[in-house]
């Protein structure tokens, strides 16, 4: 046990908090830090959780905390590289941040919390499959009896799914859920694997069966509901799909909470199938809510969903404003170029200049993973591209026989 704690790194600083943190429910109030180090660890986890939103404000707030942390002269050795890695992250030095995290893992290879840090950094920068290299190094040091082993399997399942190893991802996700049924990230990873494999009825049944284990999870339940709505829609169960959407939209923490990404993604799928005015009021609301935050994110994936809401409400000026204000600050160059092309493609699509939109989207297609999000979420761009291809396909007139 002593040897295991030595390799666990920051996970060993306060074991009681690790499970609730990786359950993504928020840290329970009854878990109060006992030592100064535990209090520091808790604030670090809360700050990390906030910056994964890619919001500039959250990055700056966490930077202020890290600066105060830097002034301490007695940081535990387990936190030294972690602290430097997060400073690099909030300074938009993503490669340096990743290098520092992986250096920490060389010293503490069974530190599953830090594996999660690297995973979320990769996810936010559009490089999710990259973590497979760290798995090969860390896994021999993580016993099946590790308290966080189920969560490790869940992280690995999602990464492998994004690397298109769908069957292995499914098996790992199911095993994670078997070990800890309320492991929300295991449920989430399993849903993604079934989605990628097109096993829609199985996905729907899985999420319905384990609903008691995810419906109370404030951090992930809206996204899991999105998976359920998609599964029903792909099974042509229209009423169930719309009901799932209504239920997910009612779960927002507040009317102004920034939780509209999945709502836009689902409604855009329906919009590409039919110009139904049933959701016009919701589209107007979504577009209005996005207007205040189009420049406050380092994620093009968020910017693109805002642009889709503006497109659905024919507000081309707002898309033009997005393009004008997107200068690439805090975003890696390749992702910036691809993101700009997609925004311009959505603008041209809204203006019904389909051939020009098609050219831009096709050109940037290979770079879409850098925009962030998951493969399942980025399907909204593939579906848009398919729609435009149909719009630009030459019409072949049927001629009567001579």
From TrEMBL:
Q: Which domain of life is it from?
A: Bacteria
Coiled-coil residues: none
**Keywords attached to this entry:** Repeat, TPR repeat
The entry sums up its family as follows:
Belongs to the TTC38 family.
Name of the protein = Tetratricopeptide repeat protein 38
Query: What organism is recorded for this protein?
Result: Pseudomonas shahriarae
């Amino acid at each position: 046990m002593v040897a295991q704690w030595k390799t666990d790194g920051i996970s060993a600083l306060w074991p009681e908090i690790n499970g609730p943190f990786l359950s993504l429910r928020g840290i329970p109030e009854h878990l109060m830090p006992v030592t100064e180090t535990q209090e520091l660890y808790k604030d670090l986890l809360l700050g990390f959780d906030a910056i994964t939103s890619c919001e500039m404000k959250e990055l700056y707030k966490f930077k202020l905390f890290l600066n105060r942390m830097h002034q301490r002269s007695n940081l535990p050795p387990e936190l030294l590289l972690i602290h430097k890695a997060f400073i690099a992250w909030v300074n938009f030095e993503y490669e340096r941040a990743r290098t520092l995290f992986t250096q920490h893992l060389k010293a503490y290879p069974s530190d599953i919390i830090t594996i999660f840090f690297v995973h979320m950094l990769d996810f936010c920068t559009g490089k999710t499959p990259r973590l497979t290299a760290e798995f090969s190094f860390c896994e021999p040091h993580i016993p099946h009896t590790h308290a966080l082993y189920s969560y490790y399997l869940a992280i690995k399942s999602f990464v492998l799914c994004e690397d298109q190893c769908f069957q292995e991802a499914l098996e790992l996700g199911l095993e994670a859920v078997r070990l800890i049924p309320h492991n929300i990230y295991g449920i989430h990873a399993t849903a993604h694997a079934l989605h990628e494999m097109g096993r829609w009825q199985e996905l729907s049944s899985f999420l319905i069966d384990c609903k008691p284990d995810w419906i109370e999870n404030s951090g992930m339940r809206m996204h899991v509901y999105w998976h359920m709505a998609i599964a029903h829609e792909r099974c042509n169960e229209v009423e169930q799909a719309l009901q799932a959407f209504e239920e997910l939209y009612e779960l927002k923490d507040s009317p102004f909470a920034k939780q509209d990404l999945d709502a836009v993604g689902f409604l855009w799928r329906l919009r590409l199938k039919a110009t139904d005015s049933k959701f016009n009021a919701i589209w107007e609301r979504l577009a209005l809510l996005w207007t205040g935050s189009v420049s406050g994110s380092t994620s093009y994936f968020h910017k693109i969903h805002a642009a889709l809401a503006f497109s659905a409400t024919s507000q081309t000026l707002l898309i033009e404003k997005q393009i004008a204000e997107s200068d690439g600050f805090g975003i890696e160059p390749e992702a910036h170029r691809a993101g700009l092309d997609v925004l311009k493609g959505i603008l041209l699509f809204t203006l019904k200049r389909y051939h020009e939109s098609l050219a831009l989207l096709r050109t940037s297609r290979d770079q879409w993973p850098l925009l962030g999000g998951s493969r399942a979420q980025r399907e909204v761009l593939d579906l848009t591209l398919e729609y435009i291809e149909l719009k630009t396909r030459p019409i072949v007139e049927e001629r009567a026989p001579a």
